[in-house]
Amino acid sequence: MIVVTGAAGFIASCLVSRLNAANFNDIVVVDNFAVEKKLPNVRGKKLREYVDRLEFFDWLDQHHEQVEFVFHLGARTDTTEQDYAVLDLLNLNYSKQMWQACVRYQLPLVYASSAATYGDGTLGYSDQDDALLPQLRPLNPYGESKNDFDNWAVQQTEQPYFWAGLKFFNVYGPNEYHKGRMASVIFHAFHQIRQYGNMTLFRSHNPNYIDGGQMRDFVYVKDVVEVCFFLLNHRTQSGIYNLGSGQARTFMDLTLNTFAALGAAPDVRFRDTPEDIRDKYQYFTEADMRKLRSIGYELPFTSLEAGIQDYVQQY
C-alpha cells in the first residue's frame, strides 16, 4: 500500500496517475477533500481509500503494517501566504508528525521541499552540502516553512530507513487548474492567449534583467513524478535533492513557446510586478542536478519546448 498526501493537488494527483500506469492501485490518498475544486484531480483514479488529513495519523496507527511507502506532498503552497500559524501547522508541524510516524513504523518517506528555500540565490542552488541549509534566506514565509523543515530533518538522529526531500523548482503541467494565482505562468499564458490573443508578463524591476528576461528552472510535472517513481524503487541514499530540469529559461522563452503551441501570433505585454511580491521575487533559479544523477537517475528531462507542446495540446 502506498500513501500519497496532498493527493487532490497538482503534483500528487499526477503521481497517482503515474503509479496507476505502473499497475499500483493499492493507493491511499490523503487530503482535505472538502475543497471541491480539487476533487476532479482524484476522480477516475484506481485507489484503495480516501483519508482526511486530520484523521491520517490515527488511520496510520491502525494500518501501518500494510503501508509500503509514503509520499508526503501535501502542504500550503501559496507563496504569498503571510499567516505563519497556518504554515507552521500544515507545512512544519504536520511534516514533523509525518517524519516521526515514519520513524516509528520504519516507513520510507519522500516529502516535498521547494526551490523557494534558496531565496534570491545568493548562495547558489546546490543541494550537496546540508551545512548550507541554516544559511539560506527564503524570500517568503512559505519558503521559510519549507527550509525550517529541511533543517529540522537533517538534524534528526532518528530517521526513516530511507527518506528524500525534493526541492521542486518551477513545476508546470496538467492538474494545476485549481491553484489560481499560484498556477504556473504557462497555465496563465495558455488561458490568456486563448481568451485575449496576448500575454502579459511582469516587468523587470532589476537592472540586470530585461523585461521578460527573468529566468526560472521550469520542470514538467511528468518528469517530477518520474523521479518520485524512481525513488520508490531506489531507496538507497537518503537526503535532500534538487528537482528541476537543470536549465534556466526566460519567461519570454516560455511565452513565445506557448504562442507557438497554440499556433498564435506572439503579442507580449508587460505590467509592473505587484508590490506585495516585488521584493520577494526570484529573478533567477537553476537546479544543480548532479546529486540526483549521482544516485543513478538517468532519464532526460523534458525540454521547455516539448513540455509546453505536450501540456497545451494534450490537456
How would you briefly describe this protein structure?
The protein is built from 10 helices and 13 strands. The protein has 315 residues and is α/β, with parallel strands linked by helices.
Describe what you observe in this structure.
It is a single chain. The mean pLDDT is 95. The chain is α/β, with parallel strands linked by helices and 315 residues long. Helix 3 (84-104) packs parallel to helix 4, helix 5 (185-196) crosses helix 7 and helix 7 crosses helix 10 (304-314). The chain is built from ten helices and 13 strands. The protein has a domain at 2-169 and 219-245 and 289-301: NAD(P)-binding Rossmann-like Domain (Rossmann fold, 3-Layer(aba) Sandwich), CATH 3.40.50. Strand 5 (109-114), helix 4 (141-154) and strand 6 form a beta-alpha-beta unit. The protein has a seven-stranded parallel beta sheet, sandwiched between helices. Helix content is 36%, strand content 17%. The protein has helices spanning 10-21, 56-63, 84-104, 141-154, 185-196, 221-233, 251-262, 275-278, 290-294, 304-314, and strands at 2-5, 27-31, 49-52, 69-72, 109-114, 163-168, 170-172, 199-202, 215-216, 218-220, 239-243, 249-250, 268-271. The relative contact order is 0.14.
